[in-house]
Known about the structure:
Helices cover 46% and strands 7% of the residues. The strands form 2 sheets. The protein has a 4-stranded mixed β-sheet. The protein is of the alpha+beta class.
Amino acid sequence: MIQxxxxxTKKGKKEVKPKNPLFESTPKNYGxxxxxQHTRDLHYFTxxxxxxxxxxxKVILQKRLKVPPAIAQFAHTLDKNTAAQLFKFLNKYRPxxxxxxxxxxxxxxxxxxxxxxxxxxxxxxxxxxxxxxxxVVALIEAKRANLVVIADDVDPIELVVYLPALCRKMGVPxxxxxxxxxxxxxxxxxxxxxxxxxxxxxxxxxxxxxxxSAAKANFTDKYExxxxxxxxxxxxxxxxxKMDKRARIAGSAAEAxxxxxxxxxxxx
Length: 268
C-alpha cells in the first residue's frame, strides 16, 4: 500500500513584529487611474531654445578649434581677488543716475537764480568713470585714460580685439575681466564692453596706483609672451581616450619590435 507523502516539516517560525496601529502602511499603486507618479528628471530630454544651443556649441568650438593669439588673450582674465578690489574701486565712481543728475542740475539752477555763486565761477564737474567704446578709444588716443577695463565676452570680438594693442602703444594700462554684464551694472546698463578711469579723488590715488601696477604686471608686461601662444586645440574626453589607446597600441607594437630585434641579435 502506497503511503501518502508526508507533510513538510515546519522550520523555525519567523518572528512577526507587532505593527504600530498609529502608522499604517499605505503602499501606492501607480497603475492607470490610481496614484500620481513621482516626477522624473527630464533635463536630458529637454529641447533647449536655439540661442542656448548656439551658445553651448560656440563654447565647444572655441575649445576644439585653434584660436589665434589676438583672440586667445581674452581667455586670460584678472584674478578673483584683484577683480573684486577693482570693482569695489569702480563702484565709487559710478555715473549719476537720471534722478541724481536731475537733482544736481535743479540745485545748480536754484543757486544760480538766488545768485549764491557768481556767474564767472564754474562749478567742479563730478568725477565719473567713462563708458562707451568710441568715447574710451578717444580717451586712449588722447592719453587721458589712467586705466582701461575690457570685458572678455564681447560679441562680436572684433569690437575690442584691437584695444590691448592700442593701449600698449599709447602706454595706457589695461585689464581684461570676466562678463560684460558685470561691467554694465557699474554704469547702469545691461552690458558694457569697456570702461575707462580718467581722474580720481586725491584719497583714491594710492588705490588706483595699486591697480595700475597689477594691470602692468598681469597684462602689459606679458603682452609679447601672449602673442606667441595660440588658444583652443583641447580635445573632448572621448577623443582623448581614443588617442591614448592609439598611443598605447603604438607603444606596445614598438616594444614588441624592439624585443624581436634584440632576440635576432642574440641568435646571430
